[in-house]
Each structure stands twice: as C-alpha cells, then as structure tokens.
From TrEMBL:
It comes from Sphingobacterium phlebotomi. This is IPT/TIG domain-containing protein. It comes from the Bacteria. The keyword Repeat applies. Residues 1-27 form the signal peptide.
Length: 455
C-alpha cells in the first residue's frame, strides 16, 4: 500500500465490499425477488461502511427489513438527503450527500418508520479555491477571462451559468456578465463619468425561473432596473407605483439591495431607515410592508446594509447584514433575519449572531462573531455563505445554525488559490451560489473573482 493515500485505501476497500455485495445479490436473487418492507416488523440497523468520507462517496448501510424497493427508502445525514442506489433488503447502497452539517447522524426512513444509527459518520469537507477572472487591476476591461479586469463588489448567478457582477470603483460604474464556458466578460451597463450615471447598482438578484436580473437604484426608492435575457439583458428602468405615500425620508432612500422571493414571487428591498418595500415584478405595484425608524429605541434597526438574501429552503426568510452605521449599536456586525409571513413580519428583524463584533469566532450562530460581514447568499439546501470582509475569509452557516470557516485564513489577508487551509482572500465582498452549490466570490481587495468548490 505504499504510495496510496488514505482516501484511495478507503476506495479500494469499498470496491471490495461492493463486489461482495453484488455477488451476494446474485446468489440471493431468487430469495430477494418480491421481498418487501414489512411495516409490522421493526427496521433494524447494525453497521455502516465506510465510517468516514466526503460528498459523493459510496456507503453501505447494513440492517434488516429495508425491503428491495430503493424508491421507498430515504436516507439522511442529519437533514441532508442521500441518494439511494439500491437495496438487497439487508444492505442499502447510497451516496453521501454534500455538506450534511456538524457530526452527521445517519437515519433510514421507510414508510412511517424512522431509525438512526448509534454512531456518527465522520464527514470530511473538501474544498478548492481557483481564480475565474481578474488580474489585480481595478479599471474594468471586458474580454476573455484571462484578459479581463474586474473590481466587483456584488455577484449573482442564473440557472444557465451566467455570473453577473456590479461595480462602482476603478473609475467606472456598471453591471457585467461573466460566462466561464463561453470564456467571456462583457458589460451590460457601463459608464465612466459620474454625471452620466443612471444606475448605481449594488446587490443583484435573479429570478431563476425567468432568468431576469434585477438591480435596485441606490438612492431612489421608486426606481429599479431589470435585465431580461430575452432582450440580451438590455437594461430597462422600471418605476414602481405606491398606492399610498411610502413615507421614507429623502435622506434614507438608499435601497442598496433587492431580492426575489419564491415564497410569494415578489421583490423585496430595504431602505436605510429600516423600511422594507415589497414590489410586484409584473405590475411594479409597491407597498411598505415593514416600517422603519431612526429612533434608537426602536426594534427596527436603522443603518446601511451590506448584504441581503432569501433563504430558498425557507423562502419567507429575508436575511441581511449590518455593521458600521447601525443604530442601536448592538445591531452592528449583525446577521439579521425578517420573517416575511404576514403573521410574523411585525415582529421585525431579529439579530441571529452574538452581540459584539470586529472579531472572529466560529461555532453556533448564536455565539459566532464576524468583522464587517458583507454579502450573503444561500445554496439550495439552506447553507448560507458570508463574505467576512475584514476577517478575509468565507464563512458558512449551516441550516442547523453552525458557523464554520470554509475558505481563507482568518485575519490573514493575501492571494492564494488551493485548499481551504492554504487559500487566501483580501477583503472578500460579494458571494453567489449556483445550482450545483459552487460559490463565487468577489475578492474585492485582490480585484479578482474566485470560485470555491466544496464537497
């Protein structure tokens, strides 16, 4: 075995087990035909192999009364569902899911029965950081991925693999499309003179059903812009219509973000005074659904936000980040959440991480600390990724509320591709996640767009 990695040893051992499993299936074909799960008998779990591994690894689960119909068997690692390939009745062949969370327990669910193995599975996170485009120069330049220059702040992706970025530095303002397969960076909106600027884009959102990209106008509450792929993403100004005055003070009409929610198919944006506006993307009708306040004693925090996202696993949850000018002070360095459901929205934004800040601490979300958290985005399983700007790293909040650092070196800025331990970022600002769970990062300090693949 000299020269073989531990992972290769595990793979070889698994293949031997799989061959034996296949042989036993052939020998027992006659006995197993029609062998169904018996709901009158308990499901028994005995052991599983291997005891550790990563995403997409194969695993054998031993026990009794599984039945041979794989379509009726559900296997979970914590709350992450595994793919079930086959079952002999006494052994299930499954695929380990991606990012199951801390200390995953394996459960088997058949019919009304659910049982959990006594031992935990040891899950190994495997991550790799690479550079997509950018060369460290701030002035925007379109072209191939290797030739382009970017100074992106915020990112978003559609279901077709297009990456959209907004920027407002390096002497210009704009929105651009990046496509790895086509090897191209091309502007959708671009101006160099501030006086000519119509759109001052920050956060972006995409309706992944239609592919329509939407950007808020930073300082006019009644205006947003849409980019429709059927029109080659030509920017169009949209003017919202309020049935009653919105009441947001002129000095606080900073609508830095807009997010599409599949919960009600509406767009949501928030002003600096804390007001939340709901916009119908078809009719442009708008209404204030959550009132803000400058009052330091108010439970609606005042202040500029630096990230906003909808949790696709719980699409009524609107999340945002606050830091430098939040009032009261205890809302600074905070991950905040607003429940958009009518019966909960008046409860206001709730701070989800520990009070404190300008610090670094992993662990449970209620105890975690961040240092100027910027953009946030979710994958389809409900994992939230945070661009922790002044900690120079990417953090992940799992659906069960555990915060881990998945790439970058906390408090150690730099530029380096590679695995989670050696990779380095400098002031990461924007994040976006595609359908496969790959994370794209606007590495603002390094003037590059990076890609983080986690398994």
């Amino acid at each position: 075995m000299k020269g073989y990695s531990l992972r290769r040893v595990r793979i070889l051992a698994f293949l031997v087990s799989l061959i034996l499993f296949s042989s036993s299936c052939k020998d027992d074909d006659k006995a197993s035909v029609g062998k169904e799960y018996d709901p009158s008998r308990p499901i028994t779990l005995t052991s599983f192999y291997p005891l550790e591994g990563g995403a997409r690894d194969k695993i054998l689960l031993d026990g009794e009364n599984f039945g041979t119909d794989a379509s009726k068997i559900k296997v979970y690692f914590n709350n992450a569902r595994a793919s079930v390939v086959s079952s002999s009745g006494e052994r299930i062949y499954a695929i380990v899911p991606r990012l199951p969370g801390d200390d995953p327990r394996i459960s088997v669910v058949i019919g009304e029965d659910s049982v959990i193995y006594d031992n935990s599975f040891t899950y190994h996170v495997q991550a790799q950081v690479s550079t997509v485009t950018g060369n460290g120069e701030p002035a925007f330049q379109a072209g191939t991925l290797s030739a382009a220059q970017v100074s992106a702040k915020y990112l978003e992706l559609d279901a077709e693999g297009n990456i959209f970025m907004s920027w407002r530095d390096g002497g210009s303002f704009g929105v651009a499309r990046i496509n790895e397969q086509q090897n191209i960076v091309t502007p959708l909106y671009y101006v160099e003179n501030t006086a000519d600027r119509v759109l001052y884009a920050n956060g972006l959102t995409v309706d992944r059903e239609t592919g329509i990209l939407t950007a808020s106008h930073e300082s006019v509450v009644d205006v947003f812009f849409s980019f429709d792929p059927r029109e080659a993403w030509y920017p169009r100004q949209r003017n919202t219509q309020f049935s009653t005055p919105h009441g947001i003070p002129n000095g606080d009409q900073y609508m830095n973000f807009v997010s599409f929610s599949p919960y009600d198919n509406m767009l949501y944006t928030r002003s600096r005074d804390g007001s939340v506006v709901r916009i119908n993307p078809d009719t442009y009708e708008a209404s204030v659904v959550h009132n803000g306040s400058r009052d330091a004693g108010s439970k609606w925090p005042y202040g500029s936000q630096y990230g906003q996202a909808i949790n696709p696993a719980r699409p009524w949850e609107l999340w945002m980040t606050l830091h430098s000018n939040a009032v009261p002070n205890e809302y600074r360095q905070g991950l905040m959440m607003l429940d958009l459901r009518p019966e909960h929205i008046n409860e206001g934004f709730k701070r989800m991480n520990a009070v404190g800040g300008s610090a670094f601490r992993d662990g449970s979300l209620s105890e975690a600390l961040f240092n100027l958290p910027k953009d946030i985005k979710f994958d389809n399983d409900g994992n939230m990724f945070v661009a922790d700007y002044s900690n120079h790293c990417i953090r992940m909040v799992s659906p069960d509320g555990i915060v881990t650092t998945v790439a970058g070196q906390p408090n150690n800025a730099g530029y380096r591709d590679g695995g989670p331990i050696e990779s380095q970022f400098r002031e990461p600002w924007g994040v976006a996640v595609n359908e496969q769970g790959d994370i794209y990062i606007a590495d603002f300090g390094n003037k590059r767009i990076r890609k983080l693949v986690i398994e």
